[in-house]
Amino acid sequence: MIVVADLYKTFHDRSRGAVTAVAGLSFSVAKGEIYGLLGPNGAGKTTSLRILATLMEPDRGRVEVAGVDRSRDPLGIRRQTAYVPAEAGLPDRLTPREVVRLFARIQGVPDGARVANRLLEELGASAFADRPCGGLSTGMKRRVVLARALVHHPKVLLLDEPTDGLDVPGRRQVLALIKDQAAAGRAIVLSSHIMAEVERVVDRVGVMDHGRLVAEGTLREVLVESGQPTLDDAFFHLVGGVG
Q1: pLDDT tens sequence across 58-90
Q2: Helices (H), the chain
Q3: Which pLDDT does position 146 carry in this prediction?
Q4: Residue 156 to residue 29: CA distance in whole angstroms
């Protein structure tokens, strides 16, 4: 469902000069699979997700989603993909119902109002669907952001720190929603720095450091490769920490 091959992205910083954020990144994600993209701050995770979502241009490399080549048909990629950034980005004055209906209209979803109402109900947001987004808790906003992302029935979900700022019940609920989306056949890339959450939901992981994959495989494969007992220990060992 997702193919990333030899992806590169360099930024130019006034003080440091050329900074390579992504350096030859390659991975793939199958239908119904949750792929954990891990790495310390500055490893290139968010840059990679933004390139996949067509929000940023790579210097070179190949990206395909559901057989659509990013360089040839970026709009086709957007029709297949939903990107959920760490920030909610919801208008304070609009209600969740208004936000999701608006995105359904932008995406050209037939009977968008009905679809929006159904998603809000399925994601447990109906009780606050008509309250202004500015007054919602972080957990409530996260549900609205997910409903907004799913309104056009994407085949791929790109999730950047989806549980950031949530309490324990909220984290559990969002992780359950992510697993449900994979069970429905969506390919999911999940970026997170919380190893315990990653262990609960992912099928495979890729560990990034300085823009490159330094390890990839199932949880068991990564633990064996790193020689560590837990994913948390393996992570710190692989990215140069004390393991």
Answers
A1: 999 999 998 899 989 988 898 899 998 877 789
A2: 45-52, 74-80, 96-106, 112-122, 138-150, 168-183, 195-201, 219-226, 231-238
A3: 87
A4: 9
CA-to-CA distance for 29 and 102, rounded, in angstroms?
30
Q: 162 vs 99, 145, 146, CA distance in Å? A: 19, 10, 9
pLDDT at residue 230 is higher than 80: yes
Q: Which residues contact 44 (CB under 8 A, 6 or more apart)?
A: 9, 21, 22, 23, 25, 208, 210, 211
Residues 154-159 have a mean pLDDT of 94
- 226 Cβ neighbours under 8 A, 6+ residues apart: 215, 233, 234, 237, 238, 243
Read off the pTM: 0.88
Q: Which of 83, 109, 87, 108 is nearest to 2 (CA)?
A: 83
Paired with 4 in beta bridges are: 27, 63
The answer to whether residues 130 and 95 touch, using CB atoms and an 8 Å cutoff, is: yes
Cα angle for residues 217, 219, 223 (degrees, 5° grid): 95
- In the block, which residue shows the tokens 């990839």? 216
Q: Which two tokens stand for residue 50?
A: 């933004």
Eight-class DSSP state of 190: E
Residue 60's SS3 state is strand
